[in-house]
Amino acid sequence: MSRAMELAPLRCERCGERPGGPAWRCPRCGGPLEFDEPGSPAGPAAPRLAPPPPGRFRWPWEASIWRWEPLLPEVPAEARVTLGEGATPLVPLAGEAEGGEAPEAEGGGIWLKLDFLQPSGSFKDRGAAFLVSYLKAQGVREVRDDSSGNAGVALAAYAARAGMRCHVFVPSASSEGKLAQLRLLGATVHRLDGGRDAARAAAQAEEAAGFYASHNWHPAFLAGLTTLGYELAEEVASLLAPGQRWHAVLPAGHGSLVLALGRAWRRLGRGRAAAAPAAAPAPAPVLWAVQAEGDAPLARALEEGLPEPTEEILAAPRRPTAAEGIAGARPVRGREVLEHLRRSGGGVVTVTEEELAAALLRLLGQGLLVEPTAAAALAGALRLRREGRVAAGEPVVAVLTGSGLKAPAALERLLAGDRPGEGRPGGAGPGGERT
To answer: What is the spatial distance between Cα 141 and Cα 32, in angstroms, rounded to a whole number?
Structure first.
């Protein structure tokens, strides 16, 4: 079988177009592309398990996202790239609950998925690993993206691992720390005046060098992120009583984590038993997206009963937030994000800057150095508990997305009570990449 035949094909769900080569969106209608999923009418009947060759070390298959290969779109073994991403800890939130209550009960309290403990310091390594592998199989040798945060650093790291050249287009006011990481990983940094929109436009330009490996557009990035769902399906099962609900709380700008977990459980329902976790997987969680109080287009669309955020909502003024990784996003798949939230019985929870700072302090007090966007997950979980939207005794998993080692200045400003945007041009600066 040829390499091309071993690679999962893409198609546009809007018009049915099937690109003949590398593509980041539909060449006919401009819509987002998706994989022909195994088990769907257009895909194979069941996922394929291709074990490592006999006699070879099994590490890439057993200690990375490739452990979940039967549940992922097909990529030839020789193209797979890994730095050992995935398999991050799930730990309970220690200490007493708010209000002087008893310490959180084992299994029924708030749990923290430490997905910032990845090779480049964020959950986006999962997506970058699969995206770079897929593009390598297509013969791509040079990539580009618009990002000054976690996605850009992840792409640069995995491109380096794969021997690809990498270009990252960034706003002029981007964090010097993140830019240094990009340069150290060998990426060519293109610094643009005009903010994130200017960086995005430059990266999407046809004449720009390399293939546009967009973490927001390309479905291969989302496919890599679904491995977070598969891990949780295995880990959370032991925390639940029969029939018990549980909740996943996720920072959301573009909503990639909501999409990843929603798609993961949809895929688990279609896969054969051999492709599922060793024990019976946890049931699908109630999904909660966390947005900043002054920048919450998903929340507004949900409140107004809309299928997705309208252009009016997306263009409305938004207040700055220290959780910059979930700020200013224009979701590519906003309709599907809201569908997953509604179907799960969850929704969107908004948090204030004060709640962000309090959650960050609590995490720091437990030895967890995360960036403000990651602290939004815990802030959201605590608010859901206070407001009674999550019942006592139901486990809650807050996904911590990015390392605080990337954003020390942003952490210090938030804890000092500085308003987001103060002291840096255009309100831009460190704090993460849109999730």
So the answer is: 22
Q: Tokens standing for 138?
A: 């297509």
pLDDT at residue 97, as a whole number: 45
pLDDT, one tens digit per residue, over 293-344 is 999 999 999 999 999 999 999 999 999 998 888 988 899 999 999 999 999 9
Average pLDDT over residues 29-41: 75
How many helices (H) and strands (E) the chain has is answered by 13, 12
Residue 45 contacts residue 231 (beta carbons within 8 Å) = no
**Tens-place pLDDT, residues 169-180:** 998 877 777 888
Pairing between strand 33-35 and 10-12?
antiparallel
As beta bridge partners, residue 190 has 169
Is the backbone of residue 427 left (phi > 0), alpha (psi -120 to 50) or beta?
left
Q: What is the pLDDT of residue 60?
A: 55
Number of C-alpha atoms within 13 angstroms, CB side, residue 293? 10
What is the per-residue DSSP string for 265-320?
HHHHHHS-GGGS-SSPPPPPPEEEEEEETTB-HHHHHHHTT-SS--HHHHHS----
Res 418 pLDDT > 90: no
Phi first, then psi: give them for residue 372, nearest 5 degrees. Answer: -55, -35
Domain boundaries, the chain: 9-40, 90-121+220-421
Closest CA to 150 of 181, 171, 176, 113: 181
Domain 90-121+220-421 CATH class label: alpha beta
d(CA 249, CA 347): 10
Residues 6+ apart with CB under 8 A from 430: 175, 177, 178, 324, 371, 406, 407, 408, 409, 410
Separation between Cα atoms, residue 150 and residue 388, nearest integer Å: 33
For 118, the token pair is 């990845």
Q: How confident is the model at residue 431 (pLDDT cuts 50, 70, 90)?
A: very low
Amino acid letter, 265: W
What's the mean per-residue pLDDT of the chain?
A: 86
Determine the Cα–Cα distance for residues 46 and 193; give it in Å rounded to an integer: 48
Instruction: Report the interhelical angle of 256-270 vs 334-344 (nearest 10°).
Output: 60
Q: Which two tokens stand for residue 113?
A: 């998925």
Report the interhelical angle of 219-235 vs 124-137 (nearest 10°): 130
Q: How far apart are CA 230 and CA 234, in angstroms?
A: 7
- CA 83-132-278 angle, 5° bins: 55
Q: What CA–CA distance (Å, rounded) separates 166 from 157?
A: 9
Residue pair 61/52 in contact (Cβ under 8 Å)? The answer is: yes
